[in-house]
Structures are given as structure tokens and as C-alpha cells.
Fold:
Amino acid sequence: MDSTASQYIAEPTSTENWVSNAETFLAVIERRAIGDWAFVAADALLQNQSIQNDGTEACGTEAAGAVFDQDLEDILQQFGVGPATQTANPVTIPVKAKRRPRTAAAQLALRLARQFGSQEAFEAALSSGRRIVIFRCDRDLVSVTEQLLPDLLHQTHRIGGRVSPLVLKLQHACDNASSSTPGSPQDISDSLRRGLDSDRTVVILMESGETLPSLIRTLRPEIIDLSSFDQALLLAHLRLRYPNAELTEEEVDHAFPESGDLAHIGMTDLAHACRAETPGEALGLLIGAAHDQNFHDGRELANFPVTTKVREELEQVVHDLRDWKVGRIGWQDVTRGILLWGPPGTGKTELPRLVAREAGISVLAASLAAWQGKSARSSDTISQMQAFFREAAARAPCIAFIDELDAIGDRARPADHNSAWTSLIVGALLEQLDGFSDRNGVVVIGATNHPDRIDDALIRAGRFDRHIRLDHPTPDLLPDVLRWHLKKDLAELDLAPFSSRLIGMSGAAVGEVVRRARALARRARSSLSLTDLDVALSEQRPKLPSALRRVIAVHEAGHALIAHAIGRNTPDMLAILPEGGIARQLVTPGPVGVEELEDELVVLLGGRAAERVMFGRVTTGSGGDETSDLAAATKIAVAIDSSFCLGGSPIWRGRPESAQRHLQEDPELRRQVGMRLRHAENRAMNVLTAHRSTLERLAAELDARGNLGRAALAALLQDIEAGSASKMDCSAIQIASAERPCSSRMFKNAVPRG
Structure:
């Protein structure tokens, strides 16, 4: 496998030997002058002294346990408190007092012991051969590692012919180091060049998670990552700090049962806890610190409510970015861009932030509207666009998020007075996606509700490698959606029963229900309850009149029955919603010809046909906006003749999305489309008339329950042979040319595919 860096794998060492192995490292430190800095006096008795305060004499007390840990003492002195400010009666530490290592020094020794096992193995790993080694540790340990590492390696650098390594610290990117600052890229480059000219191993010290500079990545260094703080390291540290106390692994695991519970505990927290007299008290202080540090709303990519397929796609991007940051893969292997598309309220703007947070990088957001903020002139817009990508490159690694990508325009649309402007803007964005300097480290994520309105050149592979559809949550995901918005509220509540009432809602709409519920709870000066959620949902989704509910049930039942009888789609879910109904079907992939497209027309018009069979008339539920049954059916019917050329003429007249404009100017096309739609509705009515009793049972069950899942639908449709509709005569019933008009739209039907 091609890689820009190799990973050092240390031999495992047993937990039982950590403390003794760590003491070996600490003994080396204490023998050197650095021991005066790395150790503090321990278990010293504070002398009894009289303290004069405001003219009165107070008795001094004997303090058990000793002095401040130096780590914490340094912090207290910055605020003018602590032993350093008590000059009137300074604390005297006996010269012969037993010494113990500072918290950071002890942690470094423990982690070296865990990683390498012995001092000899450590020296061999970092001193033998002419190698380049990246040595990474937690930010809290960088300073102490910088001070102790050279002396630890200096102990035996002449033994066995080994030469002392060159240790360089790479300045953190956020430090804004100038070229002359020690540890800056320029300083590292100069020092590294001198080290490469010698026989010495070059050790470059970095913070964990930091990105390797391109200069170092090309050298294919070995990488040594010290372990992060976890339960095993905590147990070893407390045994080192309290050598005479009994402390078991079970006690530590009980205090911190999850592996990530200690992720945010720093050296200051550990130093403060270890001032306690017993390890049990220290554990209690750490539990409180961990609770404070880890308290957040739980909103991470891992629990964002999306399908498994979507989650895997996004997690791959996170893994790619992490591996690139540490030099395990080159930029050519990283996913370059993602297009998130789907209806509003499905998380398209939230996911880029979550991906960036998970990968440990920043996110920079923009849109055409933002680029036009000062002026709509193409030159000004392009200038703002270029500035955005320059900033993204400067922040690398980062995510450059472009919202409402379809607003950029499509050069293939019919020519109008804005065509020249669109061509300039699209061309400028193409140049930025492909040609701006130093693209490495920038992943571009675009979001749109209308992928069909985006220029094809923008979304080809190499610019947006992955196209990820985000849809309204399925019933099985709705409890997770509700939990996402509830955060830690109602943590013990089973959300499944209430979530069934949210079917058809977007994630954003569910969030609005939760916000309304919280407002009700605040108004009542009480904590959030299920009653608050119930009231909020009732306000947002009022109950339907019984007559309208019955019409919706019949309409949706017609879709499901036809889909089953046709045999190409599998009914997956039906639901009655306050704003209409929903019928979801699973489509079996396969070749698509005119027969399959005409079957799709029959399914789309199945709801309309069911209304006619049951009530003798149709409502406005099949028509209306561009997502309606009739709109979708018309688009397919036009595409059969004008785009797919599966009818009489082989002349291509545009993409399915744009071919509909020919309906206004081509009477023959209108006639052909009308015939296809009438024929499809005839077929649907034949099927539904033949199975009217099943249609009635299905509609009644849906009316009573509000929603039906795949298993319930299969049981209700089991008397109808799948695919039987293809064997029926389609000409028995004729549709009247005139329909009774309806002045208002009664409900909306959607048939999402998945």
C-alpha cells in the first residue's frame, strides 16, 4: 500500500509492569539536573507557626500531605495566590523530604513505559539508525516532553555506537509562529537540513492530531503516537502517586466505565485530584472534572440520525482526512468533494460541521448570496469567491462548504439575458475547484435541494466525488431524530410510540416540535414532559376532518395496491399526515424500458384512480406543485417521447427536467402525453375495480391506525398475486373526458422512492 509515512508499532507491555518500568524512566530523569525541575517534595510536614493577622494572634495548624503539586502552584501564582505569595510566614520544606514526580513528568514516564516497555527499547527506537521519527503526544505533555526527551535519550547515546538524536519541536499551527520563531516551519526546515547531513536520528515533536507539513510528509517519517489518557494509565498513575494504598482495576473501571470518559481530563485536573490524601478521594475529584469537561449536548456525527449508507460515506471522509493529517495516505487518495442533496430540513447544513468536528478540522461556509453580498457584478462576485477559496487553503486542512449550490446556475439551460453572467460564474467556480493554488487539505462540500439545476461540469467526479442523498427520516430513524433534538431531556423515555406520530416530517420539523415543547415547559416553569411534546405536535399537526382522512386513506391505499399488483415496486409504508399522505415503495433495480416507465405511470396514478373507483370523482390531491403525482407522471410521459426517445420519434429534445417546456409549443407531444396518462389511469382503475374489496380493507386499516409498515401491508395484500396486473385487459374502462373541478387543494401526496 502506497503511503507517505510509516507507523511505528511498539511491542506490547503488560499493565502490571508499567509502574516499575515507569520508575526506571523517572530514575533516569532524577539523576540528571532536570530532576530538580521534574520532581517536587512530597509528604513534607508544614511547620507550626503563629500568623499575625490584623493585630490578633492565631494558632498555626499542621498540614498533612505536603505542598502543592508544582503544576497547580504555577497556575495559582499567576492569580496572586498560593505559597509564593505567603511571604510573611513562608512554608519550609525539609531538605531531606521524599520527592515525587510532577504530574506531567509521571504521565510521560508511564506512557513511555507503556509504549516501549523499557528504557533500552526506548533509546533504540529513537536513537539507532539514520531515521526521521515523528513523536506525538497530547498537548498537555508537549512542553514536558520537549524538556525531558533530549536528556532521556542523552543517557546512553554513546553506548553501542549510538549517536544522540536531534530533537525538534514543531510549533502548533495556531501559534502563528513567524519564520524566525523556534519551531516554525522555516526554523524546522533549516534545522532538519542540518540533521539530514549528519548521522543522527531526527526526532520531530508534535501534538497529537496535528497535520504533517508537506516538507516532512515527503520524507516518509516513522510515526510514534503516545497513548491518550485512559483507565489503565489512570490506574498506573494513582498507584505511582499512592504506592501504599490499595486500588483495584475494578474501582477505576466503575468510576469511568466508558473508554472516552477520560478524553478531556488534562494534567491540571490530574494534578488537582492527586492532592487528595487517598486514591479514592482523587477518583472522586476526577469524576467531577470529567463530568464538567464532558458535558455537552451529545450531538456528534456518530449519533446524527441518517441511514447506514450515508453514515458510512461520511465516516470514510473523516477517516481519509485523519489519515492524510498524519501522513498515512497522500492527498490523491482523499475524497475531494461531496454533494449533499435532498429536500429541505434533512441536515445538509449540519453535516459539514459534524464531519469537520469529527475530523478535528475547521469548516468555512459560503454561498452565491454571500459572494454577492456587496455587489451582483460578476467581477465582484468572482473576487469574493476567490477570496473564499484562498482562506480555505490558508486554513487547510478544512472543509469548504458551499450552500445552495444550484444558485450558481447551469450553462445548459435555455439561453436568456443572464446566460453570459452564469457562464462567467460557473467558469470561475470550476477554476477554483480545479486550479487554485495548493488545493491540498481542502474538501469541498456542496448542498442543494435541486441537483438537476446544477451544471454537469461542476458535479463530475474529481470535483464532487460522492453524491449523497438525504431524505426525510424513515419511521425506524424517527426515534433517533427525536433524541437528537431532545439532547439529554427525557433520557429514560421510550420514544418509539410518540415518534410514530412524526412520520413524514423532516428532521427540521421535528426540531421545531421540540422547541415548541420546551417553550411550553418554560412557560409552565417545569421540566420538559411528554405532555409538552404532545401539545406542541398537536399545534403543528392538527387533526384532520374524518371525511378528508378517509379520502387520503383511499388514495394512499390505491398507490400501494397498484405497486404490489404491478410487481415492480414493493409497498414499504403508508401514512396519513395532517398535510396529506405518504406512500413509500422500494424499487427493484434493473433495466428500464418503455414498459417499466409505463408501469411507473400506473403506480403514480393509482391514488387518483382509487378515488374515482371508491367515490366516483377525484380530488386535488394528485395535482398541484412539482412534487405531486400528476407532475411526476407528466414528466415521465414527456421523457418517454422527448428525452428517452422510446416512442415514435428518435429525436432527442433535452433532459427529462427540461423537456417539459415543449408541451406548450408542440400539440402532437401534448396529445401523446395525454394518451399515455389516460392509458395508465385506465390500467389502474381496472386493477382496483377487480380488487375493490382488498382496497376497502387496506384503506379502512390505514384510516384506523394512521400508518402501516411493510409487514402489515404484505399481510393485507397477500390475496393479490404480485405482478398480476400485467395480465389484465387495459381497455375495459374508459375515463370521462370531463372531471368535476375542485376550487381548493385538499391534500398533497408524495411517493418518495428508496
Q: What stands out?
A: The chain has six domains: 6-16+103-225, 43-97, 231-294, 301-469, 478-540, 546-750. The chain is about 45% helix and 10% strand. The chain has a mean pLDDT of 78. The radius of gyration is 35 Å.
